[in-house]
Amino acid sequence: MPSTNFDQQVFEQIDFTTAPFVPGIYEDCTFKHCNLSGVDLSHTKFYSCSFDTCNLSLCKVNHTVFNEITFKHTKLLGLRFDSCNEFGLVLNFENCIIDHASFHACKIPKTLFKQCQLHGTDFTETDLSGVQFERCDLLDAVFSHSKLEKADFRTAFNYQINPTINNLKKAKFALSGISGLLTYLDITIDLTH
Question: Cα-atom radius of gyration of the chain, to the nearest Å?
Answer without folding.
Answer: 18
